[in-house]
Amino acid sequence: MKILMVSSEAVPYAKTGGLADAVSALSISLAKLGHDVRIVIPRYYPIDRSSLTLLPDAMGTPMGGGIEEWSAVYTTNMPGADKKNPVKVYFIDHEIFFGRDGIYGSPVESDFIDNSRRYIFFCKAAFQLCRKIKWYPDVLHAHDWPAAVAPVYLKFAERVSGIKGEFENTISILTIHNLGYQGIYHKDNFDYAGLGWDVFYNAGFEDWSMLNMLKAGLYSADKINTVSPNYAEETKHEAHGFRLDGVLRYRSADYQGILNGIDDVVWNPEKDTYIPENYSVKNMEGKAKAKEALQKEFGLPMDSNVPVIGIVTRLTDQKGVGELFGPTYGSAWSICRDMDVQMVILGSGEHWCESEISSLASRLSNFKAKIGYSEKLSHLIEAGADFFLMPSRYEPCGLNQMYSLAYGTLPIVRSTGGLVDTVENFNEDTGEGTGFMFEQLNPSSIYNTVGWAVWAWYNRRDDITKMQKRGMTKDFTWESSALKYVEMYNDTFKALGIKVKA
Ligand code: ADP
Ligand code: GLC
């Protein structure tokens, strides 16, 4: 199959969260199965053009108000993919839309005012790219709101008035990585899409008189999915539906959850190049070394007996940071004050939270923080910590708890979304489980569950060791997820009466 991934992020080029990991790893796995997978992303400023190949001729993209003349396309092969079956990555270069610092925003403008135009243009440019390289995909696979208008263009433009031999046998898939971000903007921006105002209503863009890009994609894509089975169920209900639960119930016959995998080259203690010494379930010595290195890195006493609780996260409401770090009531403070633990956090995001964390670090000797983004440190935390805390408000899949399991670091998580599909709660009677879970998101639940884990650390060390080993042998590879995506593509071909390709 020829598969085009349309995404605003892909590692190693542009990443704000798990979307970037998921898109690249899924693409690599699909290519390993023999498919011709290509990815298109914007060429953001920090992506160095000198290492890419420029395709000849600038590309014109017809938009509502005329033609966007000056877009160039760069290309390269995705590192980590099989040499025999490479994953090609295309970068849409457009100075006005993408020639600036930041992906969706900057420190002074958290959501760029022209984001709807930037990503509507990007979606349209994906089609122009195919024309330019004369390669027409069987599957147009869009990810999250920035790519959600691509399935709309397919259904309401290309299939209606497209040129024969181009996209008439292309199916569309939209994957929700996060329903909390929908791309809602003033409807005046819709003219720019050049689709006609009937499509504004027929494709489901209309949202209380605003323009909702994700909603239109959910209505228009041939099939939709999200990144864990449990989140697929949750999002059909009001509590987790972010006002789109009705749309998802309406599309429930075409909507499913497919669990993300983890990249077992990058996130594997046996191969990890960021940690002092590799280790495996058979020989855990490297984990003890990683713990020492982590304590040293954060300026903590190098004590192997005290449990280290690690956190790596975007500092945003989704991740439960209010309940963890909220001034006057956050649980991190009381955990570090009352328990014999060390806590380390790596994260960046909302300003109030960054400053609250810095203030905590200045008051508590066993709480250390690095504000910022660091791939290396995130690996060291996953390897060196004993527990990994993720009190998410909602979690479509969550990658960090799977990384933790692979590194023998026991996750302490709220039972929501993909965390339910991946972590098994500790059973004190049988010693079974792979982590510690709680239901309600409030400071005392976090406090109590961390307390339970710390108690188990000091009093049930045998169970802890068994849980670590159990977690390390779980199979979260992308191969099985990629096969499920292929199945979904094939079901879609069948449903649309298109000859099945593989
Ligand atoms: P989300 O995509 O909602 O942020 P995930 O758990 O799916 O959550 O993925 C988060 C990814 O981003 C992980 O790979 C995690 O290690 C990484 N990450 C988040 N914050 C940081 C940071 N400050 N430094 C390094 N990596 C980070
Ligand atoms: C999103 C979600 C996260 C998921 C990731 C990759 O950012 O918040 O739970 O793991 O996408 O699909």
Descriptive report:
This protein is an alpha/beta fold. The protein has 19 helices and 19 strands. Strands 1, 2, 3, 4, 5, 6, 7, 8, 12 and 13 form a ten-stranded mixed β-sheet that branches. β17, α15 and β18 form a beta-alpha-beta unit. α5 crosses α7, α10 crosses α14 and α12 packs parallel to α17. The model has no long low-confidence stretch (mean pLDDT 96). It binds adenosine-5'-diphosphate and alpha-D-glucopyranose. The site of adenosine-5'-diphosphate has 18 residues, from α1, β14, β15 and α14.
Which structural traits does this protein have?
single chain, 502 residues, alpha/beta, six-stranded parallel sheet, 19 helices, globular, binds adenosine-5'-diphosphate, binds alpha-D-glucopyranose
Q: Which structural class do you get from the secondary structure elements?
A: alpha/beta
The strand count comes to 19
Largest sheet: 10 strands, mixed
Q: What's the helix count?
A: 19
Mean pLDDT across the residues is: 96
The low-confidence runs, each spanning 5 or more residues with pLDDT under 50, are none
**Which strand-content bin applies to the residues?**
15-25%
